[in-house]
Write a structure and sequence with these properties.
single chain; about 300 residues; alpha/beta; TIM Barrel; 8-stranded parallel β-barrel; two-stranded antiparallel ribbon; 12 helices; 10 strands; binds 3-hydroxy-3-methylglutaryl-coenzyme A; binds magnesium ion
Length: about 300
């Protein structure tokens, strides 16, 4: 039923599931590769169509994802699902190409202090590196996503100027990155931050080529998604169960939980293609493997109702 008080929202949005990468990268206890394989295959079964599986970073920087090549070789990939991996430099790209993955994601930030801690480069140096990475990736037939971290708040420098976010995003798009995901790395943003920064950027850059990536430290991620939807953004990153965090952003919690995003979208009449019950089962299983409670509200709710079938 139409209602003049309700805005026109899109019929569907895209979810990029980052749990296997952004989620697991922060977990100190290394999971066996078969547990990760079951996790990723379950996510595809639940209807997720874009899954970031792992990263080709230095194994000492993120020991949990040191098994990237073995993992990619072991996952049975579903047709229609796009699988990707994070790549910080040419060495990472070479490993990614060898693994057979079809999509990579390069990652930098809008603030120098974070980028230096994260990948030992200034923002400028990272963009020079990525020019080479993107060119070589395209020559090898791979598609490329890009991340800009610290789009709203930097854990070391504080508030970030929307112009800095704009400049990095524009450079990434110009060098051939097909979609840029704007990250609230510390999970501190509120909707006014989103209106200010994403509103400013979308005055010039195509909304279709932007995604939003919210961590949920202060419980504002869903509110920020609504602000993003109002601004015309149609792609959102989230992680199953709300797993995650960034080892280089102290105190940052996990990503927005995919279950909570799916619930919000469904209730708003927006299709995501994800089966919430199936997804909660997959998240429930990884929760059991990690032996800790995950923050997803939907997962907690289904457990309280005792209606979460968890296979052993
Ligand atoms: P570095 O030490 O400066 O690298 O690390 P280097 O180029 O000086 O090389 C040193 C050694 O590392 C060399 O080996 C290289 O071959 C090797 P040696 O010659 O000494 O034997 N090396 C590599 N080995 C494997 N894979 C590679 C690689 N590169 C060099 N790719 C580096 C620089 C970027 C590699 C390191 O700092 C690193 O791996 N950082 C990754 C940090 C990370 O994964 N952070 C989390 C992901 S970002 C995130 O979570 C944010 C996001 O979710 C969005 C948001 O929330 O905002 C995306
Ligand atoms: Mg992240």
């Amino acid at each position: 039923m139409t209602n003049r008080y309700v805005k026109d929202f899109p019929k569907s949005v895209n979810i990029v599931e980052v749990g296997p990468r952004d989620g697991l990268q922060n977990e100190p206890e290394i999971l066996p590769v078969e547990t990760k394989v079951a996790f990723i295959e379950g996510l595809a079964e639940a209807g997720l169509r874009q899954i970031e599986m792992t990263s080709f970073v230095h194994p000492k920087a993120v020991p949990q994802l040191a098994d990237a090549a073995q993992l990619i070789a072991s996952v049975t990939q579903q047709p229609g699902v796009v699988y990707s991996a994070l790549v910080p430099n040419v060495k990472g790209l070479e490993r990614a190409i060898e693994s057979g993955i079809q999509r990579i994601a390069v990652f930098t930030a809008a603030s120098n202090s974070f980028t230096k801690k994260n990948i030992h480069m200034t923002v400028g140096e990272s963009l020079k590196t990525f020019e080479q990475v993107v060119q070589k990736a395209k020559q090898a037939g791979l598609s490329v996503r890009g991340y800009v971290s610290t789009c709203f708040v930097c854990p070391y420098e504080g508030d970030v100027d929307p112009k800095d976010v704009f400049e990095v995003t524009q450079r990434l798009l110009e060098m051939g990155v097909d979609e840029v995901s704007l990250g609230d790395t510390v999970g501190a943003a509120v909707p006014t931050d989103v209106y200010r920064t994403v509103g400013f950027i979308t005055e010039t850059l195509a909304k279709e080529r932007l995604a939003l990536h919210f961590h949920d430290t202060f419980g504002t991620a869903l509110a920020n998604v609504c602000a993003g939807l109002e601004l015309g953004i149609r792609t959102f990153d989230s992680s199953a169960g709300g797993l995650g965090g960034c080892p280089y952003a102290p105190g940052a919690s996990g990503n927005l939980a995919t279950e909570d995003l799916v619930y919000l979208l469904a209730r708003m009449g927006i299709e995501s293609g994800v089966d919430l019950a199936k997804l909660a089962q997959v998240s429930g299983n990884i929760e059991k493997q990690l032996n800790k409670e995950l923050p997803s509200r939907q997962l907690k709710r289904l457990k309280t109702l005792n209606s979460l079938p968890v296979s052993s």
